Amino acid sequence: MDLESQARQLVELLDEKRQTLVLAESCTGGLVAATLATVPGVSAWLAGSLVVYQEASKQRWLGVAEETLAEHTAVSAPVAHQMVAGALQTTPHADLAASVTGHLGPNAPAEFDGLIYVGVGRRGQPPRTWGVELKAPKRVGRQRESALVVIETLIGVLERLK
């Protein structure tokens, strides 16, 4: 599926399940929120997106610990976890949060090139995080692929809600 049709499906599910979403985006630079914003009616369900490219923004806006960044780097599951938790904490009216952080190239360290970490959390439950190796060879394609991963993950979470 393409990014735009998946965004429509996500917004329909947010509406159906009556869930408000907040995002914490790093490597996507707000692309997830921007794509969702093309869907009419999303404002009822999208609380917002914190675009946190720099480590200082991750720390100040989302409460990511300096020690976590020093020990694991900004591209890690622990940082994605803290980003989700921080987004939910700073947005008390949100039911659901997702985060994404990664290296999309072209100047990424070889072991991190094309690697993202995604986090998802529901209010009252511990966040889950995992790594995804992207298939797209170039930066813009990787941004779109990353946004699609986040949106498809959220669709899966919402489809499992009773």
From TrEMBL:
Signal peptide: none annotated. It comes from Stieleria maiorica. The keyword Cell inner membrane does not apply. SUPFAM superfamilies: CinA-like (SSF142433). GO terms for molecular function: nicotinamide-nucleotide amidase activity. This is Nicotinamide-nucleotide amidohydrolase PncC. Keywords: Hydrolase. InterPro entries: CinA-like_C, CinA_C. Residues 5-154 form the CinA C-terminal domain. Its EC number is 3.5.1.42. The gene is pncC. It is an enzyme of class 3 (hydrolase).
